[in-house]
Structures are given as C-alpha cells and as structure tokens.
Design a protein that fits this description.
single chain, mainly alpha, about 75% helix
Length: about 450
C-alpha cells in the first residue's frame, strides 16, 4: 500500500469513530417512531463533515435500521433490487456510446454544422456552442459529458475571439446541461427506474422542452453578445456551406435518428438502442472518421467504468435509504404536511421546485432523484400531476444543480477548460439561469404540452 492511501485511511478513522459515537448517543435517546429524525440528522451531519454522499446515505440508513430494529440484510437486498432492473444497462452503454462518438470525431462535425448554421451572427460562437450542445445531447445523455465534448472545442475559440473567459465557460456549462434533458438522458432513465414510468414516454417528453430551452439560451447569448460586441462576421446565412457541412457530418447527424427513431418506431427497446449506439459510434469512429485510436478506446472504456462504478455505488446505497423512507411512511407525513395547500397543485410544485434547487446546490443529481422522488412522487401523483411531467420537472431542477456552486459539475468542467475560477464562472452563468427558471414556471403552470408527443405516439397514459 502506498503512503497516500495509508494516510487517507488513517484520516478516516477519527471521522468514523466520531460518527459512530454520535449515532450511539442518538440511538440511546430516540425510539423507533423518531427514526426519520435520526436519519435526517445523521445524513446532514455526515455530509457537513465531508463524508461522500453515498457513504452519508448508507450511514443514515444504518442508523434508521438500528432504531427501527430492522435487520441489516435490508441494505444488501435493496442494493440487489437496485442493480436488478435490466434497463439499468442502458446507462453505461449510452455513456460509452457518447465517449466513442466524442473521441471518434463526431463532436467536431457537429460544431462545424452549428458554425455554418448560426456562426455568422452576433455572438456566433456562443450560438454555435448552444446548437452543438443540443446536437451532442442527443448522443451523450449526460450534461457534464456534453459540456466537456463541445466546450473543449468552442471555449478556446470564443476566448480567441474576445469573449470574456467566464462568459465563454458559462455558455458551455449552461448549454451542456441540455444533455440531461434532450434524450437519451441518463437522469430520465434513473427517474424511470425509480418510479416505473415508461422510458420512451419520458424521452419523447424531453424533446420539446429541451429544444425550447436551447432557443431561450440562444436568445440570452445573443443579447449579451450584442451588448458586448462579441463575434459575428456580418456575413449572410447561405444554404450551400450548411448543406456541405451536413453532408460532411451526415454520420454524426444520423446517429440520433437511428437511436431515437429506432426506439419510437418500436424497432428496439431503449436498452437495445444503447447497444446499437455503441456499435454505431465504434464503427463510425474507427472506419469512417478514423478518429479512434487504441489510446482513445482505452480512455472511453476507462471513463465509462469510472462513471458507472460511481453510479452503481450511489444507486445501491441510496436505494436502501429510499426504501427506509417508505417504511417510515415519510411520504404520508409529507402529504399531511402539504394538506393545507393540496387545492393548489401549482403551489406544491413551486415549493418542491424551490426545495430541489436548494438541495441541488449540495447534492449530486442521481442521489437527489433517488432519495427525494421516493418522498414527493406519491404526493404529486395524488394531486393528479402527470408522472411524465414530474419527471421532466425533476430533471430540469437537477440541471440548475449542474450550474450552481458548490457542487455544480458543469461549472467545474467549464472552469477547467476556460482556466478561470469557479467563483468567476458562477457569476458568468447567472443570466443563463433565467431560461431554466422560466422553463420551471412554464412546467408548473402550463404542463399539457409536455405530454403532447408521448400521447401522440403511444396514446394517453392511464
């Protein structure tokens, strides 16, 4: 064992002892009826002293099991049931597909298409970033991955053209978050696994909000660029260069058509579509664009293994946490808490949205969805809110979490590329949060349009 891991292991010993002592003291004063209070206290305390979220959820679950006198085997059983659903294989496959397409050269083709489409206007490179992120979002399924793939190309170009570094990074971070809304989306898959809502219906429901949100981001980028004189060649848009770029990047453009078209046409399931995406990304990157090398393949597999390992660890520990939440009847307690305002579903949704946004500043998106969906999903369905709408609403609030410190993953990715501090890029992203907040209000007060495409393709949900 190296010295660094040994030091890390020794540094965890005092924390472990401290947590164990506090849990022991709390257990001596709290009975089974106050299990939820104990879980909440332990969860908040462990996170406050720097324990990683999956471990914090696991420790809080152990405390809840002890106080309720429930066998510890629930932890193992919950993890097994979390890993059991076959659609879970969709997540690592889409992550790998996105990596193969990025490493294979598809992201450059998409940026070139976006450049020919909107690059000549004021703020052209900023608009290109948003459009390219919308394209790549239909390939990657991940907000941070979209930010990295497109931002690594467009952020340095924007800096060279005179954009402020914090604004260039903020554009890539905010547009990259679309990767979690425009299908295929890993967060929508997680929500579907937790709630048993149809993955194809969620994917279809995410298309229009994702596109509308992208257009709103483009409007903000254009206005800010106009005021600051960023970019723009003054050339008129021409069809010729765009058509040539589309032809040159046809394999990249065709990828979402195959992936999503196959799902909606009933040719294959989302899991099968993910496998097709991997095969397609490997074939195009290796034989068509020839951007894949052995080193890049190794990087793609290594990145996928690290991400899915993290996801499975989070899923296993937080699944037990979510089950214990149900055992303690916390959803019923939440329903009782909101009893006085159930006549106003819009108010309930606004309060949940505000809670999600604040929690998203401190909690990663996957545990946030797993833990709190178990609490709020029974409430919103009892109010007659469509589960698909709530899924889109939940992921939209998680996207804001990508863009808010101190945990905002997209901010860290964009800050590293643009070589500015998190504080600077957090300021730059503020005006680009406006479209996300407006979209949440639209989802709360006018949600019928979200389910139009799913109802059109699959019929109204029962």
């Amino acid at each position: 064992m190296s010295a660094a891991p040994a030091r890390a292991g020794r540094s965890l010993i005092p924390v472990t002892i401290l947590v164990a002592l506090i849990i022991g003291i709390l257990l001596s004063y709290i009975d089974g009826s106050n299990g939820p209070v104990l879980m909440a206290l332990v969860f908040v305390f462990t996170m406050a002293i720097g324990v990683p979220i999956p471990f914090a959820a696991g420790i809080a679950t152990v405390a809840g099991l002890l106080v309720a006198d429930i066998p510890m085997t629930l932890m193992a059983q919950a993890a097994w049931t979390a890993f059991e659903p076959f659609p879970l294989v969709t997540i690592p496959l889409f992550i790998l597909a996105g990596q193969l397409m990025e490493q294979g050269g598809m992201s450059e083709k998409l940026v070139d298409i976006a450049q020919k489409l909107v690059g000549a206007y004021k703020g052209g490179l900023g608009l290109v970033t948003v459009v390219a992120c919308m394209f790549f979002a239909a390939l990657s399924g991940s907000g941070p991955a979209t930010t990295a793939a497109i931002g690594s190309i467009t952020i340095p170009a924007m800096q060279d053209e005179g954009y402020k570094s914090r604004f260039a990074g903020a554009i890539a971070a905010s547009a990259g978050a679309l990767g979690s809304m425009i299908p295929p989306s890993n967060l929508l898959i997680i929500f579907a696994l937790v709630t048993d809502v149809s993955i194809p219906r969620l994917f279809l429901a995410g298309i229009v909000p994702g596109i509308v949100l992208g257009l709103m981001l483009m409007a903000v980028v254009f206005v800010i660029s106009l005021r600051n004189g960023y970019g723009g060649t003054g050339e008129r848009f021409r069809w010729g260069p765009l058509l040539w770029a589309l032809w040159d990047g046809k394999w990249a453009v065709f990828a979402p058509v195959i992936i999503l078209g196959g799902i909606y046409a009933g040719i294959f399931t989302p899991s099968e579509a993910a496998a097709v995406a991997v095969a397609y990304g490997f074939f195009v990157g290796l034989f068509i664009y020839r951007g894949l090398t052995w080193a890049k393949l190794f990087h793609a597999f290594k990145f996928t293994a690290i991400v899915i390992g993290t996801v499975l660890f989070i899923l296993g520990s937080t699944k037990a946490f979510g089950q214990l939440v149900t055992i303690f009847d916390i959803p019923d307690a939440v329903l009782a808490l909101f009893q006085g305002i159930v006549e106003y579903p819009w108010l309930v949704m606004l309060l949940i949205g505000a809670f999600y946004i604040v929690v998203g500043m401190w909690l990663e998106s996957i545990p946030q969805i797993i833990i709190f969906t178990a609490v709020f999903f029974p409430l919103v369905t009892s109010l007659g809110i469509d589960p698909v709408v709530f899924g889109i609403f939940t992921v939209m609030t998680c996207e804001i979490g990508f863009l808010t410190p101190p945990i905002g993953v997209n901010l860290f990715v964009a800050a590293r590329i643009s070589k500015v501090s998190i504080e600077e890029i957090s300021v730059g992203v503020l005006p680009l949060l406006i479209p996300y907040l407006l979209m949440i209000l639209v989802l709360v007060f006018f949600s019928g349009w979200v389910t139009y495409l799913p109802d059109l393709v699959y019929g109204p949900s029962l």
